[in-house]
Structures are given as structure tokens and as C-alpha cells.
Amino acid sequence: MLTASATTRLLLLAGLATTWGAVVSAGLVQGGQPPAPPEKGPCPGQLMAVQATGVYTQKVVPDITINGQPAPGAIWQPGMRSYWHCHMDGQIMMVDQGVGRVQQRGRPMRTLQKGETEYAGPGVEHWHGASADTAAHFFQTTIGAPGTYWMEEVGRDDYMGNDIGVASRQEFLRTGERKKPQP
After folding, report:
1. pLDDT above 90: residue 53
2. Residue 24 pLDDT more than 80?
3. What residues contact residue 175 under an 8 Å CB cut-off, 6+ apart?
């Protein structure tokens, strides 16, 4: 007859073995590499140059060094933002100076202060830019596969935090118009 502590240890070992088996069968351990992404990838939209309201200005972030070089970044002037987009393997963003805004489709808009980050995983539709009255200097880098898949312009309701990206998507699918008409 097993004691309570021996039974607990056996159950723990069985649970670990089951978890390890699931990880191996999912291909996450074979050769230490995750499975290759699907050929087409998870991102809708089109590969093209940066789509943004206003002027997009690339500027390195000297406060962050990667392999001895300043990190990639961009400055967004007040009220400016990217269009909805996604990356095959994701993107990391952090506000280095100013006040930024970010949003993932289906979630509320968030305001980021200096040092705060956002991670948009593989295929996660998102946008980023400056607050309405303050510029933002972002560290932003794409993970893995290069390329940005662009969708529609971010609507005012999304930018102001009054929608979760659904209305702009429905309008884009209905009209096919990427840029919003000016009022």
C-alpha cells in the first residue's frame, strides 16, 4: 500500500510525463525547434510599404543597444498612427519617449508611457502610434520573418478607445477602401 506522499509523487511524475509527451508530439522539442509556420502564414492584408496617418519617421533608439548597435525605432507625431497590420512571427514595441497608443484587434486601446511594452504575437492584428497630444518614440522590432501585412486605416473610434477594431474591419470588408474618407 502506498503512502499519501508516495501517491502524490507518482501522480506528479505521471502528470509531468504526460505533459512532456504532449510537448514532444506537438513538435516543440524535436531538434530544439518549433514546427515551421504554415506557408501562407496567419496574417491577412497585403505586403507593402508602411501605411500610416501622417508622416512615419524611422529613428533608432539610442537608449537601447542590440549587438552593439542602437535599436530600431520610429517617431510618431501627436495623433499619428499606423494602419491595422500584422507580422508573421510577431512584433515587440516599447515607448522610449513620450506617450503611445496601441491596440490589438478585439481588445481595447491601451496608452503606453515610457518603458511600457506591447507584444503582438504571430498574426495578431494591431496598430501603434502616438497619443492625441504627445509624440511617441517607439522601439519596435519584428520577430522572425520580415514583412508587414497591411490592412485598413485605424478609425477614430478605435484610436480614441471607443471600439475594438470591429467596425473598421467590417467597413473595410464591405467597401475595400483602405484609407478612411476625410470628414
Report:
1. yes
2. no
3. none
Question: pTM for this one?
Answer: 0.75
| pLDDT tens column, 86-109 | 999 999 999 999 999 999 999 999
Q: What is the CATH number of domain 46-175?
A: 2.60.120.10
Predicted pLDDT of residue 17: 33
Residue whose cell numbers read 475594438: 164
As a whole number of angstroms, the distance between CA 32 and CA 84 comes to 33
What φ, ψ does residue 38 adopt, rounded to 5°?
-60, 155
- Name residue 126's beta-bridge partners: 85, 104
Region 36-43: mean pLDDT is 53
